[in-house]
């Protein structure tokens, strides 16, 4: 696909509906909610606004609603993933991301990930709370994990980023817990996207990296090796093997 405005993806018309957004995510494979410096991916914001830099406007308000609607309808995966920023992943490629991260984990595997040093104790607490009660909105989840204080909120946010970057937890809509902004609601990926979870367990990490690298090169044929490696967090050797 032809590039516009740095890494933005050409699209026949502006996105206007959640259905349009879902089709865009499917075509891109993976993209950002808003454009992010040093993340070489297209953004949903540009596909709506057709301008950069991004700012809070009607286009931003529109895509802010889609980040809630698409996961809730199981139309696309959304979490803070690339550079811990809002990221969409198509359901077609989600199994490859899970296999690549070796994180197609069942609800009861939190203790195993903790024992292996892959998550912190706070992340384990959130995972186990979701395994028992999910989906849960932010305030209820913090209360369940005894992270209600200001310091607890800092711990909660840090641990939640851990779990989202591992693709263990997904954004799953919102819930009106107070009179202020609606709270994010979270669900374990294994429950939110069971078909993709099962498929991921049949894919090797090498095959997953290859599929993701091929998709990325279809978007950016001239992307240098180290750009691919940095984006996905791979070593040079892993990127070379994936791109062969």
Written description of the protein model:
Helix content is 51%, strand content 12%. It contains 13 helices and 8 strands. Helix 6 crosses helix 8 (150-165). The chain folds into 3 domains: 3-92; 103-193, Arc Repressor Mutant, subunit A, CATH 1.10.10; 205-243, no CATH class.
Tally of extended strands? Answer: 8
Widest sheet: strand ordering: 3-5-4
What overall geometry do the principal axes of the alpha carbons give?
Answer: globular
State the secondary-structure class.
alpha+beta
- List SSEs in N-to-C order: EEHEHHEEHHHEHHEEHHHHH
Oligomeric state: single chain
What value does the Rg take, in angstroms?
18 Å
* Percentage beta strand: 5-15%
Count of discrete structural domains? 3
Mean pLDDT: 94
Number of helices: 13
Distance between termini? 21 Å
Question: What name is given to the CATH topology of the largest domain?
Answer: Arc Repressor Mutant, subunit A
Helix content: 40-55%
CATH class descriptor name of the largest domain:
Mainly Alpha
Which CATH architecture of the largest domain is right? Orthogonal Bundle
Unreliable runs = none
């Amino acid at each position: 696909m032809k590039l516009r405005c740095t890494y933005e993806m050409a699209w026949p018309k502006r996105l206007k509906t959640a259905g349009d957004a879902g089709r865009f995510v499917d075509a891109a494979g993976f993209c950002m909610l808003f454009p992010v410096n040093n993340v070489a991916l297209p953004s949903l914001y540009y596909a709506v606004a057709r301008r950069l830099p991004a700012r809070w406007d009607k286009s931003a308000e529109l895509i802010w609603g889609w980040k809630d609607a698409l996961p809730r309808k199981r139309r696309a995966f959304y979490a803070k993933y690339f550079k811990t920023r809002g990221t969409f992943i198509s359901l077609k490629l989600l199994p490859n991301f899970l296999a690549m991260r070796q994180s197609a984990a069942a609800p009861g595997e939190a203790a195993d990930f903790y024992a292996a040093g892959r998550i912190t104790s706070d992340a384990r607490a959130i995972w186990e709370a979701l395994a028992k009660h999910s989906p849960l909105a932010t305030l209820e989840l913090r209360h369940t994990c005894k992270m209600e204080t200001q310091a607890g909120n800092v711990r909660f946010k840090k641990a939640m980023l851990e779990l989202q970057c591992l693709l263990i937890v997904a954004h799953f809509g919102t819930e009106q817990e107070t009179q202020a902004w609606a709270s994010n609601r979270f669900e374990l990926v294994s429950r939110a996207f069971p078909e993709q979870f099962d498929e991921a367990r049949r894919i090797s990490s090498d095959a997953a990296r290859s599929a993701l690298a091929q998709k990325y090169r279809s978007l950016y044929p001239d992307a240098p090796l180290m750009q691919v490696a940095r984006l996905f967090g791979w070593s040079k050797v892993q990127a070379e093997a994936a791109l062969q």
